[in-house]
Specification:
The complex is a heterodimer of chains A (471) and B (279). Chain A is of the alpha+beta class. In chain A, 30% of the residues lie in helices and 22% in strands. The chains are: A alpha+beta (471), B alpha+beta (279). Chain B: Keywords: Hydrolase, Protease.
């Protein structure tokens, strides 16, 4: 294929600024040393036990996600723009959620169709009219970005519920610092280890008004069989809060309590890593054994804060995504700093027609799909694949959206033969409490297969440490 | 009418439970056709959580029972003054957008039979006359399902009930809700009480019906089981997307089993009736 991909390290034969100091590092690393370091890194990952699927991807829970030692680097200038764009988006998404569970001004103003919001499965009738502390619904916003040029960044999707993968961001850094301490001594790489402190502060910020002492926060996990259990326990440890399952909590009077060896202790803020449907069997699915009976009543009467707020998912739906730039204009009165990827909705007849005529150029995704499953990458697909996919779209058009095949940037990656460019994306984690905070960095995923544009770990993707150079 | 309600719910657990938590949607709201005079919920041994109103305007409260719990009695007594508003719900404070009530739920999932029933009912009714369409659907459902207690249970879906052609008020309501949503009429389940008259002695007065949103008019009640719209014999407790969501008491959760559940609801005219309250 003739497509030119933006290489984040090399501009022709010249090395771009942010990567200049890695040139020598690379030169000084003989093949054997690299292999040794690579197995050292793997051993470290295994020892920590970080073996889970990244963000909701269905995968074998014991599988180690490949770690690539070649870091991905941003300059302070590049990051400043990203940071502004991400924070802007996180603010707008929260303003949207506060609005659609209140008066729905953006709908009344005719800027977003009512059906898209109120008929959405993720819109929770149970929290209509309830305003959570500070009006914040999505406290941890994971925004997936791709890059196509020096200044071209696009938002691929927003994750407003419980985005995972942040433990990789922290562990990747930890391991790089252990293996290459001199790189961190010689260069000013912005630290990411403030994340846990910021997350803790965010949870404290949103404690309910009824809480009159130092708020007690917990992480609510579905349990050890969940693919992200490692991350749940990792974050609980870092923040110094309890990791609990539904059965460890109960509701009594106006509050939610945690069973401890010293008797019940009041819980003020719950960072839940379980889906809405399972939070409370008395409000949602009656067969849920993972949640806490009565918790939604305590939440709705202001006795406890649940992060992210039940119902926050309506903001990150692929059909709502199209309207995020409009949200930014409507609520913030600003122009979007980060662009959306142009998206065709197959639910619309004329757009579907266009998609079917241009399948070989487009990426087609299921509206509610994730993990890189059930998608078509037109330029990489055979004629047969395209025909088969076309009939799936005709059968149920509303289930699909399409986007142009983006020329994802590449960064140098260690491969069998040495170093070669591989495609990457980026997920930063934005925290929303009293302030909007973002640690300088995120999780970079890399498609390890040559030419592949799919970075999901279930499709052969790996992870990299992400560096932001201090000024 | 000025009605007196006694609503008793008794749970018996063979194996005592370590803790039971209930969510009550058990207090009627006051609105144009309904004024709550007195309302008392007694439940021995319960700690109560804060009361709040949800987006649908229903009052919700948590009751927690600390174990070992081998029985629970929830006894409700109250008096309500009702007037006939021809089924129209007026003056009811709620914030939920009606479009939220267009989604399908497990018990209201439509099937081919429900679709055919609705299509036939709406065949000759102009699309613009939403109220006539709602009435036509309610009439069709009333005809399609014969009232027959014991033929269906709490988990029976609307589609199953229609196939059998038999059911109780809950089944009528589910089929009607399902049919209405198919044709873009927001619809919801209402739980409440029905005063059926004193002549035949005490009758089971716990009841359920449907509300359909008619643009320009608001929510309108339809009781397909009795082929009418709710009038002053009806007391409205609360609503939900389907019966389980509108239940007056939600309390038994996964892993718990209740061996004995008895519900009795008695409604009689409150005495003495005062002149000013006669309508």
């Amino acid at each position: 294929m003739a497509t030119e991909y933006f290489n984040e390290m090399f501009d022709g034969t010249t090395v771009r600024d942010p990567y200049r100091f890695l040139e020598n590092w690379l030169k000084d690393m003989p093949h054997e040393l690299r292999h040794m370091k690579q197995s050292e890194a793997e051993a470290l990952f295994r020892r920590i036990g970080i073996t889970f699927a990244v963000y909701g991807e269905a995968a074998d829970t014991d599988r180690l996600i490949p770690f690539d030692m070649f870091p991905r680097v941003f300059t302070a200038d590049e990051w400043r723009k990203l940071e502004r764009g991400i924070k802007q988006r996180a603010r707008a998404l929260n303003a949207f959620l506060a609005d659609v569970y209140d008066r729905g001004e953006i709908i009344r103003a005719g800027r977003i169709p009512a059906e898209l919001v109120y008929r959405n499965e993720a819109y929770e009738l149970a929290v209509t009219g309830f305003r959570p502390p500070l009006g914040v619904y999505s406290h941890i916003v994971g925004i997936d970005l791709v890059r196509t040029g020096p200044d071209q960044f696009f938002v691929l999707e927003d994750n407003c519920r419980t985005p995972s993968g942040v433990s990789y961001m922290l562990e990747n850094r930890e391991i790089m610092m252990r293996m290459f301490p001199q790189l961190f001594q010689e260069n000013r790489i912005a630290p990411v280890d403030g994340y846990a402190r910021l997350l803790r502060r965010t949870l404290t910020d949103v404690a309910p008004a009824k809480c009159d002492s130092d708020p007690t926060a917990v992480i609510l996990t579905p349990g050890r069989f969940n693919s992200a259990y490692y991350e749940h326990s990792f974050l609980a440890d870092l923040m110094g809060v309890d990791l609990v399952e539904g059965q460890d909590l109960f509701v009594d009077g106006d509050y939610c309590w945690m069973r401890t060896t010293e008797g019940p202790r009041r819980v003020d803020v719950i960072y839940r890593r379980i889906d809405d449907a399972f939070i409370d069997p008395l409000c949602f699915r009656p067969d849920s054994m993972l949640g806490v009976p009565g918790l939604m009543n305590v939440y709705r009467s202001g006795g406890v804060t649940i992060c992210s707020a039940p119902g926050a998912g309506v903001a990150d739906d692929k059909a709502i995504y199209i309207h995020v730039p409009e949200m930014i204009r409507f609520y913030l009165g600003e122009e979007p700093i980060l662009q959306n990827v142009p998206t065709w909705q197959c639910a619309k007849r004329d757009e579907c027609k266009y998609v079917l005529e241009h399948l070989s150029e487009l990426v087609v995704k299921e509206v509610h799909g994730s993990g890189g499953y059930g998608m078509l990458v037109g330029p990489k697909a055979s004629k047969g694949d395209i025909e088969a996919f076309a009939s799936k779209i005709r059968e149920n058009p509303a289930n699909y959206i399409a986007q142009p095949t983006l020329a994802l940037s590449t960064t140098p990656t260690f491969v069998e033969e040495g170093v070669a460019p591989r495609h990457v994306d980026l997920r930063p984690y934005c925290l929303v409490g009293k302030d909007v905070n973002l640690v300088p960095g995120g999780l970079t995923r890399v498609a390890l297969t040559e030419g592949s544009l799919v970075v999901n770990s279930s499709q052969g993707g790996g992870v990299k440490d992400t560096w932001v150079l201090a000024e | 009418m000025h009605l007196h309600v006694t609503h008793i719910t008794r749970y018996r657990f063979e194996k005592p439970l370590s803790r039971v938590t209930q969510s009550h949607r058990l207090t009627p709201a006051s609105f144009d056709g309904q004024t709550v005079q007195t309302w008392l919920i007694e439940a021995e041994g319960a700690t109560r959580g804060a009361c709040f109103r949800d987006g649908a305007g229903d009052e919700i409260q948590t009751l927690a029972f600390k174990g070992p719990v081998s029985s629970i009695d929830v006894i409700v007594t109250g008096e309500v003054i009702t007037t006939d508003t021809s089924g129209v719900l007026r003056g009811h404070a709620e914030t939920a957008n009606p479009l939220t009530y267009l989604r399908e739920t497990p018990l209201t999932l439509p099937d081919e039979n429900i679709r055919k029933l609705a299509e036939a009912a709406l065949d000759a009714v102009p699309e613009s006359d939403l109220l006539a369409r709602a009435h036509a659907l309610a009439t069709a459902v009333a005809k399609a399902i014969t009232y027959a207690p014991g033929e269906t249970e709490a988990h029976t879906t609307g589609a199953e009930a229609l196939k059998q052609g038999k059911g109780v008020c809950q089944d009528h309501a589910h089929v009607l809700i399902s049919a209405a949503r198919l044709f873009d009429l927001p619809a919801r389940y209402v739980s409440g009480y029905l005063f059926a008259g004193e002549e035949d002695g005490p009758v089971e007065a716990s009841h359920g019906w449907a509300e359909i949103f008619v643009a320009g008019l608001g929510w309108v009640g339809f009781d397909a089981a009795n082929a009418c719209c709710p009038d002053d014999r009806y007391i409205r407790l609360g609503s939900g997307l389907e019966a389980s969501d509108a239940a007056p008491i939600r309390g038994i959760v996964g892993g718990q089993s209740c061996e004995g559940l008895e519900v009795s609801v008695m409604i009689r005219p409150a005495k003495p009736m005062q002149q000013g309250q006669q309508q």
